[in-house]
Design goal:
Elements: H1 3-10, H2 16-26, H3 31-45, H4 53-69, H5 82-113, E1 116-121, E2 127-130, E3 136-139, E4 143-148, E5 155-166, E6 175-179, E7 182-186, E8 190-195, E9 201-207, E10 210-215, E11 223-229, E12 233-238, E13 243-248, H6 251-258, E14 261-268, H7 269-280, E15 283-286, H8 289-292, E16 295-301, H9 306-317, E17 320-324, E18 327-331
Parallel strand pairs: 5-6, 15-18
Antiparallel strand pairs: 1-4, 2-3, 3-5, 4-5, 5-8, 6-7, 7-10, 8-9, 9-12, 10-11, 12-13, 14-16, 17-18
Helix pairs in contact: 3-5, 4-5
């Protein structure tokens, strides 16, 4: 008798001929030693199994039924010697152990199927990510998303940085983006999220309807509504002050952003330069506070070089700049 045949018996894969061999073997006192050996191997293969108690009870019931059905093949003994106790214990325990092993393995395979994928763009780089449901994500520079390879009943993911989403509509499966303590929930729409560390979170809607909530408990189970947005609406949530502010935007600007066009409308030069630093992976220093507060209204394309963009800004804000190694210095 070999271990492989015993494992086949325990998993109900024996042929009729093999089954008869096992039944004959079970009548032998020395069968307990081999069962113990198989038991030890099965135990060593188990790595912190996560048990499904309902499935375990069902499996135990099946094993007991199997033993009852095969009762005529097992000798009836009124007085049990220790070796027989071991044998019958093994007959009961081993199927349960192998059942635990396969249940654990099945659960681990399930976890593996929903393993998270991470996409990251360093400064100066942008990308387009297509999810398994057909959703498109235009991921910005210095930004990261984490998402499952295959979605389940709820499509959930995480974002750090900024991205434009064109979510594939699926009324039966909401799409949720987690950004620190804020979550944005949609069914199918297009919108942009900015969620950089240390800065307020901004959600802007191009098409459809978007719900923005914040988590009020550490376990993320209790939510409080921040805003429900429609096209052209923007909500900014400041986690430092726990306050939300609403504003509007031309939806066309959001579409332009995903195509690599930056539209600055009445924005401080300091804020514009912070965006350019991220998009071009360059350091920009301003020597004048008055220049930092100058308001900019312009459009530029990321397909253009940083020097060409700086030429446009220098004319608009009336400043001079010079390139010094890997940084740009701006002065009056």
């Amino acid at each position: 008798m070999n271990k492989l045949l015993l494992k086949k018996y325990l998993n109900n894969t024996c042929t009729d001929e093999e089954l008869e061999q096992v039944r004959q073997f079970l009548r032998q006192p020395e069968s307990a030693d081999l069962f113990r050996s198989v038991l030890n191997e099965a135990w060593n293969e188990m790595e912190e199994p996560e048990l499904d108690l309902h499935a375990m009870a069902s499996y135990r019931q099946q094993i007991m039924q199997k033993l009852q059905n095969n009762n005529e093949s097992v000798p009836k003994i009124t007085k049990f010697r220790p070796t027989h106790l071991l044998k019958y214990a093994a007959i009961l325990i081993l199927p349960l152990v192998f059942g635990l092993y396969h249940l654990s393995k099945s659960k681990k395979e399930t976890v593996a199927k929903v393993a998270l994928i991470e996409s990251y763009n360093p400064k100066g780089q942008r990308s387009i990510v297509t999810l398994s449901d057909g959703t498109l994500i235009y991921l910005g520079s210095n930004s990261k998303i984490r998402y499952p390879k295959i979605f389940s009943n709820v499509r959930e993911m995480e974002l750090i940085g900024e991205a434009f989403f064109r979510v594939k509509r699926d009324p039966s499966r909401p799409f949720i983006i987690h950004t620190n303590t804020v979550q944005t929930k949609v069914l199918g729409t297009s919108f942009k999220i900015e969620a950089f560390k240390g800065s307020p979170i901004a959600v802007s809607v191009a098409t459809g309807k978007v719900r923005v909530d914040r988590e009020t408990t550490p376990n993320k189970k209790q939510l409080t509504s921040v805003a429900v947005l429609t096209p052209g609406n923007v909500v900014n949530w400041d986690e430092k002050t726990n306050k939300a502010s609403l504003s509007t935007i031309d939806p066309h600007e959001l579409e332009q952003w995903k195509d690599g066009n930056l539209i600055f409308s009445n924005q401080r030069l300091a804020d514009v330069l912070a965006v350019l630093e991220r998009c071009y992976n360059v350091k920009i220093n301003v020597t004048s506070n008055s220049l930092s507060n100058f308001r900019i209204n312009t459009t530029c394309s990321l397909n253009e070089s940083i020097t060409k963009v700086m030429d446009v800004l220098s004319k608009a804000a009336d400043f001079k700049y010079k390139l010094d190694d890997d940084q740009i210095i701006i002065s009056n």
